[in-house]
Amino acid sequence: MGLNGRVIEEQRNYFIVDTIKSAIRCSIRGSLKKNRVRVCTGDIVTIDITNQDTGEGVITAIKERTSFLKRPALANLTQILFVNTYKHPSLDTEALDRFLFAAEVYQVPAVIIFNKTDLLSPQEWESLDVTASYYKKIGYRILFTSAKKMTGIDDLKGICRNEVSACTGLSGVGKSTLLSCLFPEIDFKTANVSGASGRGTHTTTSISLHPFESGYLADTPGFSFVEIPPVDEIDVVNYFPELEAATGKCRFNNCIHNGEPGCEVQELININEILSSRREHYLKIFNEEKARRQKFR
Ligand SMILES: Nc1nc2c(ncn2[C@@H]2O[C@H](COP(=O)(O)OP(=O)(O)OP(=O)(O)O)[C@@H](O)[C@H]2O)c(=O)[nH]1
Ligand SMILES: [Mg+2]
Ligand SMILES: [Zn+2]
Questions:
Q1: 292: helix, coil or strand?
Q2: Which of 11, 65, 229, 286 is most exposed, with the fewest beta carbons within 10 Å of its own?
Q3: Whose CA is nearest to atom 6 of ligand 1?
C-alpha cells in the first residue's frame, strides 16, 4: 500500500517525505530514475516503506506539478513571497520587476513584502507608500513588515496559512529573520549559510519546506540578480499586467512601447498612470530575451 506525502527536503541521495504522520527518508525507485524524472522539494509523491526497522522508504510515483520554480528548484508552490526593503539594502525596483515577471511566467501568485519598516523616517514611509500603492493598483498583494519590531507578522501568518510558500529576495532583506518570527524554534541563519556555500555548480543547496498551518514555508538563499525564464520577446509584455492592458490601444498593433508614435503606454506614463521604470524594466527584459533567442537560433 503506497502512502502519499510531500518532499520537504532534498539530501545527498535521499528525500525527506512528509506524510503528515511522520517524515520518512526515501530513495527513488529505479524505474523512476530511468524515466529521467527528477524529484525536487515540493513534489507530491507516493512512497512504499521498504524497511520497517528504520522506517525508510522509496518514492514510487510523482504527481504532476502545478507549478515549478527553477532556481531554487521548488515544485507546487502556491505563492512566492518576494521580500524587499526600502533601505538597507536600498529598494531595487528592477529586481522587483524582474521577479514579478518571472512569477507571472511561472504562474505563481506573488506577494510583495516590504520589510525593515522600523528603519523608515516619515518621508521615507511616504515615498515607499507611493511605490507600494502602484504595485497594489496593478494587482499585487502588499505587506509591510518589521521583523525587528514584529509588525505585520500576524498578517504574514495569515497569508501563509494553507499555502505552500517560498520566501525569496535579494541578500540581506531579512527573509530568514522574518521566517524566524514564524518558526522561533528553527535556526534559518545556519541553514542558509550551509545551503548557499560552495561554488561548484553541482553543490546541493538544501532548501526545506517547513510545515506551517496546513501549508508549508521555505526560506531560500538570497541572490544579487534575478534570473528570468526564457520567453519569446514579443510575449514579455504579457507578463507586465498594466502594460498588457494598454497594448491594444497603441496606434500600431506591433508597437513594442519604445517611442513609437501614438503609444498608449507612453500616454499613460505622461499622465503618471504607469511608472516609467516599469516600461524601462520591461524593455530591458525584452532585449535580453531577444538576444537570448538570437544566440540560440
Ligand atoms: N532593522 C531591521 N533589521 C532587520 C529586519 N529584518 C532583518 N533585519 C536584519 O537584516 C540583516 C539580514 O537579515 P537576514 O534575515 O539574514 O536576511 P536574508 O534575506 O535572509 O539574507 P540572505 O540569507 O543573505 O539572503 C540581519 O542583520 C537582520 O538582523 C527588520 O525588520 N528591521
Ligand atoms: Mg537568509
Ligand atoms: Zn505602445
A1: helix
A2: 11
A3: 174
